[in-house]
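Look over this entry.
=====
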Amino acid sequence: MPEGHIPGSAPAESNTAAPTAGHAGPGKAAEQRPGRPEPAGRRPGPTGRPGPAGRPGSPEQPQSQPPSHPKPQTQPKPSPTTPASTAPASTALRRTGLLVTLILGGLTATPPLAMDMYLPALPEVTTSLHAPATTVQLTLTACLAGMALGQLLIGPMSDRWGRRRPLLLGLAVYIVATALCALAPTIETLIAFRLVQGLAGSAGIVIARAVVRDLYDGDAMARFFSTLMLISGVAPVVAPLIGGQVLRVTDWRGVFVVLTAIGIALLAIVWAKLPETLTPAERHGGGIGETLHAMRGLLTDRVFMGYTLAGGFAFAALFAYISASPFVIQEIYGASPQTFSLLFGVNSVGLVVVGQINGKILVGRVSLDKVFAVGLTVVAVSATALLLMSLGVFGEAGLVPVSAALFVLMSAMGVTLPNTQALALMRVRHAAGSASALLGTSSFLIGAIASPLVGVAGEDTAVPMAVVQVAATLVAAVCFVALCRPWNRRTAVGTSKGMTGSTVEGAES
């Protein structure tokens, strides 16, 4: 089986007809210049109509080749506000690109909102519910594990029933679970409700990635992921600040009340403004057998799994910081919840800024593999510096040098995370929901394992956090080198029959 080809998916010819950056026609994708995706809302027109700017027109599609996004000329364009719309929505969504970006950014902001706003309250929860710090950290692990397992379920569901219905159902359950977290009487019930919260909240994460894959390809997809980071990256900046301010007027339960209100607002916006992006013709109707067949094809794709595991372990280094930093910054270095929130926000700004540099400057000019490798190297160097400072190699390290190392580590994630997602999703066109589920599940499961490890030595040392970050980064580098083999252009980009035209273009970059 060729690498990158998912069993049961459409043949390669229909993949090349997908909305692809710089796509000219069947069999000619490799002749196009890389890094020049067509502008949002501009797609090759049918015979006799002008194509994108600067080109005389689009070649005629063979009648035997079914396009990935059929657009009958007699069918009116669906309204983006029509809930039951099942017609192709790509053009309409691209014309309202800012609104779609904000909605998808809000969906991908679900994890940082659910976790980061709650971080300043972790020490208070230990006192309120009379639980040790390691047990309280399990509330983070439960939420993260729920998000991992939920994606594995909801991703294939979205391939079969479309993106909209599973998303709305997941958001509704998320709201109920978050409200119940505010009422939890014991640490055990809080952990259980956080698990349900994560299971339901995973719908926003996995379906947002699948929607991006429905609409974009190649460098355009990598740029859009970087743009999403600008929106979703605001959440880690704002969430701890909001959490710190909420704790001024109420206790940790008030944080979950605010999260419930945010969930209600997001559900209303998605219901009114986000249409279906997966047409009935593209959905999988074969039931659980076809889903498992597609999953097996993804799991046996060495390069896809290489990017998936590399991104997952890089995320583990990030989550080690998320779960341990409240205790490291507040308990070891004596910072207040408001100071911790400010430092966390500054680090998140670094991640957002570097993400925008990636999307606006690097994508299309530098190989995504090279940018990912550089980002991973910076993460490794920063984690090693943190470990040496935690061990006292440089003497007594204060809050400033530790915060500086954490800032560099977080900023490097701005090129590491979006690029590995784009590189993995470039391997597939069909079963994008299942591919997105595997991406998210691996990241969150690995992160969930890293969370309790950072507290094994207690609250008085930052060594476990640094050790987990160094180890996770090294494993990510091994997966990237051994499985993706970025020096091999045909393997790293993928020229197998299951690949899209824009992916073949990347081989020439």
